[in-house]
Design goal:
- The structure is a single chain.
- Helix content is about 40%, strand content about 20%.
- It has about 325 residues and is of the alpha+beta class.
- The chain has 3 domains: about 90 residues, SH3 type barrels (Roll); about 50 residues, no CATH class; about 90 residues, SH3 type barrels (Roll).
- Strands 4-9-5-6-7-8 form a 6-stranded antiparallel sheet.
- A hairpin with a 5-residue loop joins β1 and β2.
- α4 runs antiparallel to α5, α4 runs parallel beside α6 and α5 packs across α6.
- The radius of gyration is 63 Å and the shape is rod-shaped.
- It starts with a helix and ends with a strand.
Length: about 325
């Protein structure tokens, strides 16, 4: 009977040992070591392991265990999940591979190339070319206007031809000689230097004869004046040098004896003017001092617009 009880106590002791051993688990450290036992007193600092032989380890920090060991602790200590959550690293899900998108190339808009067979018609195919053509056309008309003044041709004639034949028309008139009217040419011929000298000599002889006869007719009859000196465009180049050499007396503030009774008659594209003196002669224009309504005024006339200049007595018609 005693032997049977002994075997029963032995079986019970062996079962206890087997149960205690099965209750423990293996926990791997990050250093590679293994700790086997029952976790005790878990807190934020770590856990104590009760080994199978009954010994108790020091408190091991949670950071010393691998993720697999921490997962085992989470299963063995379900009530301490909040302590383990900061140390557990969730497995990242594998990235979902997106389907490869097909790249489609879209050609950008491009300007149409000009037609090689378009010819001159391509000049009128864009607003820019039309604007440039209009600018050239109006410049052609303005050039025709200036050439008509320079060559003394009628403005409507030159500008009209330039409108019909751009560029070519103004070039033709520019190459032509300056136009001089027939009546003006005849007047110039009548007042050549020889004719003027002859008229001066006749006037002097006539005056001497009247003085010998008593000279009374001069006081009662019409006075006799010397013929006017005429300078015509075409035979004379009107510029600054001409006025400074031929009419230097009229450029003085006080005219000399030869100029005090003479006036300057100017026929130009802007009109006809009678001046007592010349204010100044610049590089491109002449300034006349004329009388208007009892007051003197200054008028500027470009050399290119002067047709004729006469030096005559102030009482001459």
């Amino acid at each position: 009977m005693i032997h049977r009880c002994r075997w029963l106590w032995l079986a019970f002791f062996v079962s206890l040992l087997a149960g205690s051993h099965s209750f423990g688990a293996d926990y791997q450290l990050v250093t590679g070591e293994m700790m086997t036992g029952e976790p005790l007193a878990p807190d934020a600092r770590g856990v104590i392991i009760k080994r199978a032989d009954g010994s108790i380890s020091e408190r091991v920090p949670w950071t010393n265990f691998t993720q697999a060991a921490l997962q085992e602790f989470a299963k063995a200590l379900p009530k301490q999940q909040k302590l383990l959550e900061p140390f557990l690293i969730e497995d990242e899900p594998e990235p979902v591979k997106k389907a490869r998108q097909e790249v489609r190339f879209t050609a950008p808009p491009r300007l149409d190339r000009p037609d090689l067979k378009a010819g001159l018609g391509a000049l009128f195919s864009s607003p820019l070319s039309l604007t440039l053509l209009l600018l050239v056309y109006f410049a052609n008309l303005y050039a025709a206007f200036e050439i008509s003044l320079f060559r003394n041709y009628p403005i409507p004639l030159v500008v009209g031809i330039a409108a019909v034949a751009p560029v070519i028309g103004p070039i033709i008139f520019l190459c032509m000689p300056t136009h001089i009217p027939k009546e003006e040419t005849q007047e110039v011929l009548e007042h050549t230097p020889e004719q003027i000298a002859y008229e001066h000599a006749v006037a002097a002889e006539h005056g001497a004869a009247e003085e010998q006869a008593g000279g009374h007719a001069i006081g009662h009859g019409a006075p006799v004046h010397s013929a006017a000196t005429v300078y015509q465009r075409g035979s004379t180049m009107f510029n600054r040098r001409f006025f400074e050499t031929k009419m230097s007396g009229f450029l003085r503030m006080v005219p000399g004896e030869a100029e005090k009774d003479m006036v300057i008659f100017v026929k130009s594209a802007r009109g006809e003017y009678v001046a007592q003196r010349l204010s100044k002669a610049l590089q491109n224009e002449l300034y006349l001092q004329v009388m208007k309504a009892g007051a003197s005024s200054e008028i500027a006339i470009p050399y290119s617009e002067i047709y004729e200049i006469q030096i005559r007595h102030k009482d001459a018609a």
